[in-house]
Amino acid sequence: RAKQEGRNGFQFYAQDMNRTSLGDLLLENQLRGAIERGELELHYQPKVCAQSGQLESAEALLRWRHPELGLIAPGRFIPVAEESGLIVVIGEWVIRETCRQLAAWSEAGLNPVPIAVNLSAQQLCQPELTTQVAQALAKSGVSANLLEFELTETMLMRDIDRSLSTLGHLREMGVSLAIDDFGTGYSSLSYLQQFQVQVLKIDRSFVNDIRVRGADGKIAAAIIALAHSLGIKVVAEGVETEAQHRFLTRHGCDLLQGYLFSRPQPAASFAQQLATQHSGARLLSTSIP
Ligand code: C2E
Ligand code: MG
Ligand code: MG
Ligand code: MG
């Protein structure tokens, strides 16, 4: 739409001004074509084994390298992409790019770890999602067990029947599934098993509750116990302190992710971590009491 309006496209949007800010509209216009111009990139944040500190897997996090504004975080442009529907093509690119990158690392002789991709609600609603995933895997030759999807509770509960069927197809393909930001959304525990997820990610806010004294963190501990009783693995996101690291490890959390271990990083520096992983290096050398 906006393209046809050309440079005077602002006028066209004037009546929408109350709903969406001018900044968002500019961003939306520039986001169209960002894929073709090669401005989107994925950064990778390690998840480490709580017991051994070794790199186990990673999460792909989208960034937009804007020619004037520099690197833009997803919190700034994903809402714009969601509202405009652009998230569907962007999300498809993220899946393809992750598979392409996994294949490239394999070809370079690195032994890649599984990579998790965040899905948006609109992608989950698309009937083509499973075909897109199958094609991305086939084209890259990447094994399905190297791919994981992160979905939120609210997303899954929006249309339970459809979610169950889509997740069932993805599981059959061998892709694993995780619930992101667990504990913040609206969900029903009785569906946890039905959704066939392998992983729960404790939301950062509950990890943040764990203070030096270790008296807090009751919700994190409860989520770990709940997940384990259902045979589900647990990842803690947003681990920033040693106290959180110790608390989570003591309570049996399986994987840890956060600035304490590593920030999300560009593909090239993540590849270096993959390379050192072969020598059994730990991301954090401190020992766990
Ligand atoms: P998320 O999936 O819950 O990702 C975790 C966010 O926490 C990331 O922010 C990550 O950089 C940040 N983080 C990791 N460790 C720490 C820590 O120790 N402390 C703090 N303060 N933050 C930490 P980021 O990269 O800005 O992404 C924000 C959100 O954007 C993601 O939340 C996810 O919901 C969404 N997102 C990112 N990439 C994609 C994508 O490819 N597709 C879709 N649909 N959403 C995406
Ligand atoms: Mg995530
Ligand atoms: Mg999360
Ligand atoms: Mg989050």
From TrEMBL:
The chain holds residues 416 to 704 of 704 of the full protein. Residues 24-278 form the EAL domain. This is GGDEF domain-containing protein.
